Amino acid sequence: VKATYIPTNTNTFIVKEIDSDFVEILIDGEYKVVPVTEIRIIDSEVNSVSFDQFNQCLLSSLIVKPSSDLLYSSNTNRLTPEPHQYKPLIKFLNSQNNRLLLADEVGLGKTIEAGMIYKEIDKRDDLSISLIVVPASLTLKWKTEFLLRFDEDFEILRTPAFKSFLKDYELYSNSKAYRKKIIISYHALRDEDVIELLQKSTITIDFLIMDEAHTFRNVSTATFTAAFSIANIAEYVLFLTATPVQNTYED
User: Which intervals hold domain Helicase ATP-binding (predicted)?
Assistant: First the structure.
């Protein structure tokens, strides 16, 4: 259905009705959910199209907004996932804000689930900067798991090297070939200089994984401040913990 998006006075199409208050529109090549009060119908007549036109529209739609029913990263991993490990992936693909808390019990394969989600998003969006934040004792474990199971070679950076990366970001970020896959510890993340650089930088983290997310449950700590700062500049965020509630629900 042809329509006008009132806030920008832009012609658009209504793709589907979400409910009585919201609709999904296609505008500037992107899908967007907006209130019906911001839409003015131009032409409510449904026009027929040829089969070739339908195929072209369907292909364009899948390119612009890949379907969660199709896994573009299948057969790219060096493992056979358990059925339950697909559930977080599907849930993440259907997320409205590109964020998910993985709170499976110990032993159910949260690292594998995180890797599956990462590979799928990378296939869809061609990620430039990916960051994994974990306790210092787990940095090598995560590097090994992602290399052996997903053929993804992440670099472990200590605090000075991560500071240098943040400082040098402006020099290389405009290059389309710029890709960095980094693992750091929470010790590096909560460094005062790192927090300041994150708050001042124009950097965007394309994909952020934070293991043992209960580490930053206390809002009065430097770890929480750092985690909050970096999550705010990340496009996709995945939190992992086997103990989401430590003492109270405020955690």
Answer: 91-251
